[in-house]
Design a protein that fits this description.
This protein has strands spanning 61-62, 65-68, 74-79, 92-98, 104-113, 120-124, 133-136, 139-146, 151-157, 166-175, 181-184, 191-195, 211-217, 222-232, 241-246, 251-255, 265-268, 272-278, 284-285, 293-302, 305-311, 318-320, 333-339, 347-350, 358-363, 372-373, 389-392, 397-404, 417-420, 440-446. With 447 residues, it is mostly beta strands. A six-stranded antiparallel β-sheet has the order 1-3-10-5-8-19, with no helix packed on it. The protein has a six-stranded mixed β-sheet with strand order 26-25-28-23-21-30, with no helix packed on it. The protein has a five-stranded mixed β-sheet with strand order 2-4-9-6-7, with no helix packed on it. It is elongated, with a radius of gyration of 35 Å.
Length: 447
């Protein structure tokens, strides 16, 4: 006689998961077909196996017990023979992984294959309520999943019969703190690193739902060399976005690419650069094949300035400030200090595009303490046909700085522009096509 009676009725009682039933001493099975007509084949099969009852053991459980996972730490767990043999019968593994750190998330990556019917792992803490309890059995594809709580518990038990490959995984404690804010570079503090959270601590990927924003400021007589040392965003997360912009929110780089092939080095001259990084809310990911995130290095250096002073008179009121392919050097800032005749204003006319060629700063006054004029519209042009674009001062003085782009993608660098304080009635740019210098000029070099 069976140790107890079990009655099952209906279609596909074990639809997706085999059901394991355990009996002591003996078992009797009875089957009575129904007289109902069905559209599917009816039948069943039963696998019967016997085994010797034994005491539960955790000997083959790697890192069994409670573990506090520290920031940047990786804790391994699994069955001892994973990859080389099956796990033993009558196993009982109990894990508890916890973190008490603010702005950190636990994450788990695990490979799992056990006897589908009978050897089960229950996991609590990686899914949000009310679905926070998972059961793993059979074969489970390796995934990378962030936890919904600060504690992950896992309990695995095996019976005394057929065994399987086992399981093997890692638990991570990933720092999600951006460190967003305003950073000031100074002559005594010229270096800065900006990274995705957790990158420098060996995190395999970055946290979900990030919105990091860094603003880096520096004196205008200096420039910043920005180098993207590493960038690798998540596969399949097109909402992840990395953006670099200048003082006027002109976007220098914007990417959500898994593999980035664009420029990695930039010269920033406008006294400020901002970096913004956002990530999608996805909690379950494909296991990272390489470390995901980014690393940006910034280095501030003194500008090397070639200064030209231009003073307009009634006899000379136009001047060419073209750089002639920057023949005097590519690692130079070409500065033009222009003074109009009394009561007049300075207008700068541009005959070449700027994007990828040069960085342009224009100050509405005699020096860099004056307000900087927004020139971002000039970088959006791909051609300079028709009436040239222009910028006008509000007073008698204007300061123009042109910095060639060392890391350009153009075959030839060139900058062509002219300045004047001449106007006829309303502001007009027609007929102004001079390429020869006018006005009184004085050249100086300064560091």
């Amino acid at each position: 006689m069976a140790s107890h009676l079990l009655l099952t009725i209906g279609r596909h009682v074990t639809d997706d998961e085999p059901v394991a039933l355990y009996f002591l001493k003996s078992l009797q099975v009875s089957f009575a077909p129904s007289n109902r007509t069905t559209s599917y084949s009816r039948g069943f099969y039963i696998l019967v196996d016997s085994f010797k009852r034994g005491s539960a053991s955790s000997e083959a459980c790697m890192n069994n017990g409670a573990v506090t996972v520290h920031s940047g730490q990786t804790v391994l767990f699994g069955t001892a023979n994973f990859g080389s043999g099956t796990y033993p019968p009558n196993m009982q593994c109990s894990y508890s992984f916890s973190s008490d750190l603010k702005d950190h998330l636990l994450a788990i990556s695990m490979e799992f294959e056990t006897e589908k019917c009978c050897d089960v792992m229950f996991i609590d803490g990686i899914a949000p309520p009310p679905y926070n309890l998972y059961n793993y059995q059979g074969f489970m594809q390796r995934t990378f999943q962030f936890a919904s709580t600060q504690v992950i518990t896992m309990n695995f038990t095996s019976d005394g019969t057929v065994q399987g490959v086992g399981f093997n995984g890692s638990v991570y404690n990933i720092d999600c703190a951006c460190g967003s804010g305003v950073y000031q570079l100074t002559p005594n503090d010229t270096l800065l690193q900006i990274t995705s959270p957790g990158f420098l601590h060996g995190a395999p990927t970055y946290c979900p739902e990030l919105n990091c924003f860094w603003t880096i400021k520096f004196p205008v007589d200096y420039e910043v060399m920005l180098n993207i040392s590493d960038i690798n965003l998540r596969t399949g997360s097109q909402q992840d976005q990395f953006v670099i912009a200048d003082n006027f929110a002109r976007v220098l780089l914007s990417t959500n690419s898994t593999t980035y092939y664009g420029p990695t080095r930039f010269i920033i001259t406008s006294g400020q650069v901002s970096i913004n990084f956002t990530s999608a809310s996805t909690m379950v990911l494909s296991p990272p094949l390489t470390r995901e995130g980014f690393l940006v290095d910034l280095r501030m250096v003194k500008k090397y300035i070639r200064r030209t002073v231009i003073t307009f008179t009634d006899d000379s009121f136009m001047a060419d400030i073209s750089t002639r392919s920057f023949v005097e050097g590519l690692n130079v800032t070409y500065e033009y200090s222009i003074t109009a005749r009394p009561g007049k204003k300075v207008t700068t006319h541009f005959f070449t595009t700027l994007n990828g060629i040069a960085n342009l700063e224009i100050y509405d006054g005699s020096d860099t303490s004056a307000a900087m004029i927004d020139t971002s519209f000039l970088y959006n042009l791909t051609t300079m046909d028709g009436v040239p674009m222009s910028v006008r001062s509000t007073g008698e003085k204007l300061l123009v700085r042109v910095r060639p782009n060392l890391f350009n993608t153009k075959e030839k660098l060139d900058f062509q522009a002219m300045v004047t304080d001449w106007s006829q009635g309303t502001h007009c740019t027609h007929g102004i096509n001079s390429t020869q210098p006018y006005g009184r000029e004085e050249n100086k070099w300064k560091e």
